[in-house]
Amino acid sequence: MAVFPALGPGAETHSLTTDDGVTMRVVIEGTGPDIVFIPGGDATADGYSEMFNRLSDRFRCISYDPRGAGDTTAPPPPWDMEDYARDCAAVIDAFCDGTAVVCGLSLGGLITQATAIAYPDKVRLAIPMGTAAHIDGFTRDWMQAEIDIRKAGITLPDDFLAPHYAVYAFPAKALHDPRLWAQVKKSYTERFRDRDPKDTIDQWQACLDFDCREALTTCPVPFHVISFSEDVQTAPSMCKVVSDLVPNGTFHEIEGLGHVSIVWHRPDMVAEKLREILDGELGDG
Predict the structure, then answer these.
(1) CA atoms of 40 and 210, how far apart (whole Å)
(2) Which CATH number fits the domain that encloses residue 100?
(3) Total domains, the chain
(4) How would you class 269 by CB atoms within 10 Å of its CB: exposed for 0-12, middle for 13-18, buried for 19 or more?
(5) Is residue 284 predicted with pLDDT exceeding 70?
(6) What is the secondary structure of 192-247 as a DSSP string?
(7) What residues contact 236, with CB distance under 8 A and at least 6 apart?
(8) Which residue range forms the structural domain that includes residue 131?
(9) Distance from first CA to last CA of the chain, Å, rounded?
(10) Distance in angstroms (rounded) separating the CA atoms of residues 101 and 231
(11) Nearest in space to 102 (alpha carbons), one of 134, 74, 62
(12) Where are the beta strands (DSSP E) in the chain?
């Protein structure tokens, strides 16, 4: 059982080294308008394999391992969201024709916002998913607790990894589907078993430090913000703040999905929503 579903045979892997010393693994598949998919926390480019499989027939799908995950290397942390946005801009410069649609989930959703704010000339359309303009309330307390137990040197046993993390990722109906739970259990155990605690600390701290509420109010990039009705990490109300703040913002809520339903659970529904948005905004490209 792989951590993520496999990328298709047409996916090409590249390496990109930026001027500030980041070397990123970049994956590309398909032809058409460029879409840069930014992974969430603790995830790699492979987390978008289901989107590549469903969208690369009409779009050139691009993703990369962000700082703190996969095969990407970067200068020592701390990192902030501006660092992550600069990495995304470098990918656009290196692999796209001047501009790209930028789409990201969770940490990737925050990076999507930061990139649109800092580099509006490079972002044709922003599609943050499961996102927030500022993390507060329950989500902040949970993320801070996760950071603190790692700083304290506490390691979760293997048999606790999937039951712990999956409840934040998938809706209850999905977790009680025996076949899906078998997939998620194997995947999440493998994914988090060898995860470097410091990488999680550094990625998650950048999320907690991010607050783009004021900057969003003058961002000229059109936004389509996607939320999931059963999302425990970033509730639809958090996502709607983003679409309400940005001058050209549209809010979407997909019923019955959780924070990471894009993998293993209902990638078809997420891809269908993305295709609807892309067709409406880009037309024939």
Answers:
(1) 15
(2) 3.40.50.1820
(3) 1
(4) middle
(5) no
(6) HHT--HHHHHHHHHHHHH-B-HHHHTT--S-EEEEEETT-SSS-HHHHHHHHHHST
(7) 227, 228, 229, 253
(8) 12-282
(9) 36
(10) 24
(11) 62
(12) 12-17, 23-29, 34-38, 60-64, 100-105, 123-129, 223-228, 249-254
Does residue 104 contact residue 129 with C-beta atoms inside 8 Å? yes
User: What pLDDT, on the 0 to 100 scale, is given for residue 283?
Assistant: 79
| CB-count exposure of residue 228 (10 Å: 0-12, 13-18, 19+) | buried
280 conformational bin, left if phi > 0, alpha if psi -120 to 50, beta if neither: alpha
Task: Classify residue 242: in a domain, yes or no.
Answer: yes
Averaged over 7-34, what is the pLDDT?
96
212: its two tokens: 């783009």
Average pLDDT over residues 149-162: 95
Residue type, 62: I
Q: Phi and psi for 272 in degrees, rounded to 5?
A: -60, -40
Asked whether residue 5 is domain-assigned, the answer is: no
Q: Is residue 71 part of a domain?
A: yes
The three-state secondary structure class of 62 is strand
- Residue 171 CA: distances (Å) to CA of 10, 69, 96, 268: 32, 25, 36, 16
pTM here? 0.97
Q: Which of 1-5, 120-124, 210-214 has the lowest mean pLDDT?
A: 1-5
Quote the CA–CA distance of 209 and 195 in Å, as a whole number.
22
The pLDDT of residue 285 is above 70: no
The predicted pLDDT at position 1 comes to 47
Contact 126, 59 (CB under 8 A): no
pLDDT at residue 194 in the model: 85
The DSSP H or E segment spanning 92 is: helix 81-95
